[in-house]
Amino acid sequence: MNKSLLTMVIAATVFTAPLKAEDVYEYKETPKPNQIDDLLDDDKDGVINARDLCPQTPGKADIDNDGCGTYIKTEEEMNLHILFQNDSSVIQPMFLAQIREMSEFLEAYPSTSIELQGYASKVGKAEYNQKLSERRAQSVQTALLDNGVASSRVRIVGFGDTRLDELGDDEVSHAMNRKVVATVVGLKGNVKEEWSIFTKIEK
Question: Residues in domain OmpA-like (predicted)?
Answer without folding.
Answer: 71-188
